[in-house]
Design brief:
5 strands; about 15% strand; five-stranded mixed sheet; 4 helices; alpha/beta
Length: about 150
């Protein structure tokens, strides 16, 4: 099945999808910075270029969109058009995510994954709850955290 958009329209659509400085990322950066935490952004030296890197705590935070990273929540639905292409694309994303988390942990990094649905939608957490969970995790020795599931 051919694309319903022209190549230039598809290019515009895809270029509008941001990988950095997204609203969820900016929210998390703001609440942690306000609480005195300092971090590095998108370190290309680490597997997957984590969104936030906290060298002092040997911890990273990954902020995942539920669609692009196949979160098992109400926000994720398989696209009905070009189903095979999307299945291949999203499964490759998922496999890459698992590999990156595994590699980060092998290198001694602690990993927190904040899912987009925890910031909007039915299971949305308040900024205070989200900040408290992340601050508690940063100060702990917990190796892996997934928000909203582990909160």
């Amino acid at each position: 099945m051919s694309d319903v958009h022209s190549p230039s329209a598809r290019s515009r659509n895809m270029s509008a999808i941001r990988g950095k400085d997204t609203k969820p990322e900016m929210l998390i950066r703001r609440v942690l910075h306000a609480r005195g935490f300092r971090y590095r952004l998108h370190s290309r030296k680490l597997p997957g270029s984590p969104d936030l890197v906290f060298p002092k705590y040997h911890a990273v935070i990954l902020i995942h969109g539920c669609f692009w990273h196949m979160h098992e929540c109400e926000a994720f639905r398989w696209p009905s058009s070009r189903a095979e292409w999307w299945r291949d694309k999203l499964m490759a994303n998922h496999v890459r995510d698992l590999r990156n988390v595994d590699e980060l942990q092998k290198q001694g990094w602690r990993v927190a994954i904040v899912w987009e649905c925890s910031l909007r939608g039915k299971v949305r957490l308040s900024e205070q709850s989200l900040a408290s969970a992340l601050v508690e995790w940063l100060r702990s020795d917990v190796r892996l955290l997934s928000i909203p599931h582990d909160v």
